[in-house]
Amino acid sequence: MSSSRFSERLYQAAEPLWLKCHEHPFLTELSAGTLSTDRFIYYLKQDYVYLIDYAKLFAIGSVKARDVQTMAKFAELLHNTLNVEMELHRQYTEKFGVSREQLEQTVPSPTTVAYTKYLLDTAAHGSLAEVVAALLPCMWSYCEIGTAFAKRPGALDHPLYREWILMYSSEEFGELTEWCIGLMDKLAEGLPEAELSRLEERFIVASKLEYMFWDMAYRLEEWPV
Ligand SMILES: Cc1ncc(CO)c(N)n1
Asked: Which residues of this protein are catalytic (predicted)?
């Protein structure tokens, strides 16, 4: 029995990438309350279409689960994404006159396409462990960012960004993330090194795509042609 958890190995492997996210101007400006609203709205629209595909990973997790308890937890994650997290996006964008239909019709940017299709490819061809490894950086890194920002003096005073920080620092989001981390550890138990490094690769690529997502929003990325 190995004494260290597989999730710790993943965390250590991804830490330099996650630090780069924390230092990205999109996030430093969001926590300081200085992020321009056009960048934030662009992000919310892209994130909304991202979440539509991301939510499907939870549905597929439910299908691939080997026991009812895991199946139910994935159903809860699916529900939470569609009705809690995406509701935040709907309420935010409504304030700026973007309708629900417009939100759903957002044309995914190149980076959004890369990220969502990477996740869906994992869902279509990977094991349950690979699905969890690919979706974990999303939840875990947002949980870390939300929790860190909630502690920053003044960050929750901003009228626009307060709700976003509250969502990702919430106890509910933290508990769901902890559950996914625990599931990753359970699924990795006893796997050969070749399998573990495949999982690590999924986790690292998803972490790189997380960084690219922040950067895409800051640059207001468009299709070049
Ligand atoms: C791109 C991205 N990653 C992670 C999350 C957290 O669910 C999100 N909303 N968007």
From this structure: 210 (proton donor)
Angle among Cα 200, 109, 14 to the nearest 5 degrees reads: 20
Has residue 122 been placed in a domain?
yes
The string of pLDDT tens digits covering residues 32-66 is 999 999 999 999 999 999 999 999 999 999 999 99
Q: Which residues are catalytic?
A: 210
In short, whether 213's Cβ falls inside 6 Å of ligand 1 is: yes
Q: What whole-number distance in Å separates Cα of residue 35 and Cα of residue 113?
A: 24
Banded model confidence at residue 1, pLDDT cuts 50, 70, 90: very low
Q: What is the value of ipTM here, to two decimals?
A: 0.98
Phi/psi of residue 113, each to 5°?
Answer: -60, -45
Domains of the chain: total: 1
Residue range of the domain that includes 149: 36-219
Q: Is the CB of 212 under 6 A from ligand 1?
A: no
